Amino acid sequence: MRDCTKISRKADFALNIIMILCTLACVIPLIIVFSASITDEKAVTLYGYSLIPRDFSLEAYKYIFKNIMVVLRAYGVTLLVTVTGSSLSLIIISLYAYPISRKDFKYRSVFTFIVFLTMLFNGGLVPWYMVYVNVLHINDTIMALILPYLMTPLYVLIMRTFFMTTIPEGIIEAARIDGAGEFQTFVRIVLPLAKPVLATIGLFNVLTYWNDWYAPLLFINNEKLFNLQYLMYRVDKAILYLSNNAGSINNATQIMANLPSQTARMAMAVIGIGPIILSYPFFQKYFVEGLTIGSLKG
Amino acid sequence: MAEVQRSLGTEGVTVKRQKPALLKEFAKNKVLFFMLLPGLLVLLANNYLPMFGIIIAFKDYNYSKGFWKSDWVGFENFKYLFNSKAAYQITRNTILYNLAFIIIAATIAVALAIIFNELLNRRMSKLYQSVMFLPYFFSWVVISYLVFALLSSDMGFVNKQLVNLGMEPVEWYVDPRFWPLIIILVNTWKWTGYDSIIYLAAIVGFDKSLYEAAAVDGASRFQQITKVMVPMLMPVITILTLIKVGRVFFTDFGLFFNIPRNSGPLFDVTNVIETYVFRALRQTGDIGMASAAGFYQAIVGFIVVLTANYIVRRIDKDSSLF
Asked: In this structure, is the dihedral angle defined by the CA atoms of residues A49, A55, A58 and A60, taken in order, positive or negative?
């Protein structure tokens, strides 16, 4: 007999069809971009972007390979910022979350409120921009790419809650009796117990830094400090400019004739998306776990 | 997080008492205070200095005079802002788009979560979840490339299909008519997988014996879902929705800036507070208007968050922010 708490085979079939359509909607744009990147430029200008490459060609990648130093440099900036930013952020967040999780720390509510207030009220873009440019003078430095995401208030509160609920006060007390200093207790006892929440917040940090184009858009003019996302943004802008002005500027017409701009644009996208899709099967699971820790119990 | 408020209530009083208490506490817990220091410095730079800097909205900012020496002009910047048609446009767009996103998250994402839970083949269900979660990991720059491949007027996939079907191609990046729909679709594409996974986590945690009890009473699976599962899910939906309502005055800058490719003819339906402030600051250099719009957003946004949180508190104390 059929299990009454399950849907019928017919309903399951119908739902599967809907799901397949939804997954296709998620995947098709990716396929179009990928197949455009391996299509001949002329075929694209004639027939447009399509699901299946019409005339196979690696010209676009060859063209990008000619400028490989620019791409590698941007990858380097992204990697550097992601690694230092995420680790620095984890250190600063956990250092802050620990004292405000300690029930015997008298001013914990004051310092919790200092973080919490920033979730309710912020000065907005203009004063923030001016602090970076006119007070700290960190525009056009790596610091401008790292500082914005170091202290996400929600992560501080999630970590504080984790410390409060999963680390028994008795352990901290016992360490004190054994003569361990405050900082020693934190590093040797508290942090190892907090591995799950450190991993989760670390992953979200990595994603934030890896995908960031907003900080460079605001603060970076020096081409040497373009990260991968911002390079993609600029390449797109440059191609748009060239194709809009192809008729009016003489040498631009010449550049356009030789430049596989429409396919190179898509090859650039593939180079940018590639690492995320390739590593997706490995990190996806941790994000799902992290989401359920963070959003429902936070 | 409700704890913040509770502990503030009891201990906030002792803070105000005297200074020596703070000094004594500092001497006792030197290490703990030093641990807070790096975080405090970051908050100072990112949040507290800009918070005070917000008064720039009441100044006629002049680059050569700088922040302190620029003249006070009272509400002059606000007068300009609210006399322009931009104020209405960006407020309307910000709120209407957010409402659409909120409704979609509370309906389509919930439906998707239920489907993920119902599919007979677990493995296929996991596969669908993985694929639909993927767009969450793409930046708006990447998504703007994907959308361009579909909507480019001469090479885009959509126009090619329209021509194949014998219809007129559309100049997507110039024609504002379709953009409310496009913005909503793109946002749904990016976030629905993510939202549905949060709802699915709640559904998986429900006690299955309740469905069995309903089945014994003759309820079909569809009735079990509508009469047992959805009511149990309601608190989660309400809370998540209210949290989003609290953010109704804030939008995702990347969505409104990158997806329409900063195209002027589309501003009427794609301009929101964030894009307006950005363009006024970086492209037209109108610091007065930019800071006035930012101030307006911060204040109204603050009031809305407090109101939404007040309502959440009355429904479920533990889910409220404070």
From this structure: negative
Decide: B306 and A120 in contact? Cβ < 8 Å: yes
A99–B35 C-beta distance less than 8 A = yes
Q: Say how far apart CA A3 and CA A7 lie, in whole Å.
A: 8
B40-73: b (≥16 Cβ within 10 Å) or e: bebbebbbbbbbebbebbbbebeeeeebeebeeb
Q: Is A91 on the interface with B (CB under 8 A)?
A: yes
This model of the complex carries an ipTM of 0.91
Residue B222 phi/psi, 5-degree rounding, is -65, -40
The pLDDT tens digits of the residues spanning B128-163 come to 999 999 999 999 999 999 999 999 988 899 999 999
A92 touches B at CB < 8 Å: yes
* CA–CA dist B199, B196 (Å, integer): 5
pLDDT computed for residue B151 by the predictor = 95
Angle at A245 between CA A240 and CA A249, to 5 degrees: 140
Q: Does B259 touch chain A (CB under 8 A)?
A: no
Average pLDDT, chain B: 90
Res. A179: pLDDT tops 70: yes
Alpha helices in B75-139 (DSSP H): 76-83, 85-118, 122-133
Which residues have CB under 8 Å from B98's CB, separation 6+? B244, B247, B248, B249, B251
Question: CA nearest A150: which of A127, A118, A181, A120?
Answer: A118
The B residues from 81 to 110 touching A (CB cutoff 8 Å) are none
| Phi and psi, residue B291, nearest 5° | -75, -30
Fill in the amino acid letter for B133. F
A33, A121, A211 member nearest B302 (Cβ): A121
Residues near B91 by beta carbon (within 8 Å), at least 6 away in sequence: B273
Question: d(Cα B214, Cα B225) in Å, to the nearest integer?
Answer: 10
- At B126, is the secondary structure helix, strand, or coil? helix
Residues B70/A126, Cβ–Cβ less than 8 Å: no
* 8 A C-beta contact, residue B151 and residue B172: yes
Question: A139 to each of A36, A143, A221, B236, B281, how far by Cα in Å?
Answer: 36, 8, 8, 42, 15
The letter for the amino acid at B69 is: K
